Amino acid sequence: MKHWKKVATPTFAIIAFLAFWEFIVWFNHWPNYKMASPSDLIPAYAKYWNLFLIYGWQTLWRTVVGLIVAVIFGTLIGMVMGFSRTMRDALYPLLVGFNAIPKATVVPVIALIFIGQHDFNTILIAFMISFFPISVAVSIGLSTLEPEYRDILRSLGASKWTIFWKIALPKTLPEFFGALKVSVTLAFIGTNLMEIVEPHGRGLGHLFDSGKINADYPLMFAVLIALAFLGIVLYYIVVALEKIFAGWAERPQG
Amino acid sequence: MTNLIDIKGVTHAYKTENGPLPVLENLNISVPEGDFCAVVGPSGCGKSTLTRLIAGLIKPDEGEVWLHGERVTSPRSTVGMAFQNPVLLEWRTILDNVLLPLEIVPNSMSKRQKQDRARDLLALVGLDGFEDKRPSELSGGMRQRASLCRSIVHKPDVLIMDEPFGALDAFTREDLWQTMHRLRAEEPFTGVLITHDLRESVYLADEVIVLSGRPATTQHVENVKLSGRTDLEVIYTQEATDILHRLRHQIEVAQGRAEVVAQ
């Protein structure tokens, strides 16, 4: 019953959303160049399904690689800031400033610096846009560790590394996964920024672009929905990982 | 009998932005092996600093701390600690929480032996059947029981407790006092108990040390040897009441609210 409900509730919400969308378009008599309806998307998927697979995969793997780099780099920066007050004071303004720069403006710069290296460029933007929440979460998790936790292990003669491995790291995991959920969607935005702003014939962003050039409006909407779908899939992968590694943080409701 | 804990002329100050803040001044405490020593004193008089000094987590500015005839200069695995906050690791089961010190302190126990040891202790404090629960599923008193098991699982010589029962309600606290007596009967350790509760100190300790206000020094040592100790009724005897009165007076002196009177 519970498992059944867990899948049924979001599925019902999605169906309700699609029905509402279909209704709005039908009710207002909008032509599909103004707003395509869900029923317009099916022919688009049927016609270009192989392109969706190829480009979807390109977008997906580059997003995931960018995200992995963001996790590694973000965690390292977060650790440095979490353990050292001086480093925190030094790095925070830099990070905030860097994060405040609209990444759309960075895309042409990056594209010019690493000209022709399309995969690298795309991964770089996906990484740059998504590491910030992770480093903030890790640094907060580590710097708010209650001193008693450290004392319990230190009084037994544990090394700094042991304290980090046995206490600081697991204790930070809930915050880390919270940030990772935000970063997942950000990384998709990064990948598509590169694919759309600096066209290089790869990824779903490129498919969106060709839809625009050919005035194929249902295709453009179909790409957006495909992106949303990939985002949801990746999000739930993160949720599954969270359940495995930080499931203890979830309290029974009641 | 030799002294297990010897604190000799310890002076310690914290560095603050407004210069050093002295918390302990020429403090002398000796605890014989196997004894239980309670330390009471006004709030903020440096009692917690004392626990960190004995545990070797900080070094005194002046003076020496000796454990077992060895000078303490760094943390030692022969010490167990328990705090007001049970600081259990939420991602571990109760059993794995109790096992934590055995993962760090070098020992020759097999995995099986470690588990048996932890299970025995949990049973001793009345937590059998809760081994596989998470800390969040336990009440405050039960968490503190688990925390006590963790602090002695590696058979430390010295158990240092910093207001371990301070956050519990009165009845749970009395339960835990009795648990403490049960543990002492089974496990040989020398105890230092920091507390605000005079009744607690009289019921549990062999001697009660009253610290003066900050910077703290030993103001008064009260020997408490109540007969028929483990029965809670002992707190309501005339003998205990007299001791409580004397301690109460000493606290008021420490707070600067009363003059010392000749006894």
Describe the structure in brief.
Chain A has helices spanning 2-28, 38-83, 85-100, 103-113, 118-143, 147-154, 160-197, 203-213, 217-246. Chain A is mainly α.
How does this structure look, described?
The complex is a heterodimer of chains A (254) and B (263). The model of chain A has no long low-confidence stretch (mean pLDDT 90). Chain A has 9 helices and no strands. Chain A has 2 domains: 1-30; 37-249, MetI-like (MetI-like fold, Orthogonal Bundle), CATH 1.10.3720.10. In chain A, helix 2 crosses helix 5 (118-143), helix 2 runs antiparallel to helix 7 and helix 2 (38-83) packs across helix 9 (217-246). The relative contact order of chain A is 0.13. Chain A has 254 residues and is mainly α. Chain B is an alpha/beta fold. Chain B has a domain at 1-76 and 159-165 and 204-263: 3-Layer(aba) Sandwich (Rossmann fold). Helices cover 33% and strands 25% of the residues of chain B. Chain B is built from 7 helices and 10 strands. Chain B has helices at 47-54, 94-104, 111-124, 140-152, 170-186, 198-204, 238-254; strands at 3-16, 19-32, 36-40, 62-67, 70-71, 79-83, 158-162, 190-194, 207-211, 218-223. Chain B has a 6-stranded mixed sheet with strand order 6-7-8-3-9-10, with helices on both faces. In chain B, strands 2-1-4-5 form a 4-stranded antiparallel sheet, covered by helices on one side. The relative contact order of chain B is 0.17. The model of chain B has no long low-confidence stretch (mean pLDDT 85). The interface between A and B is medium-sized, with 21 and 26 residues.
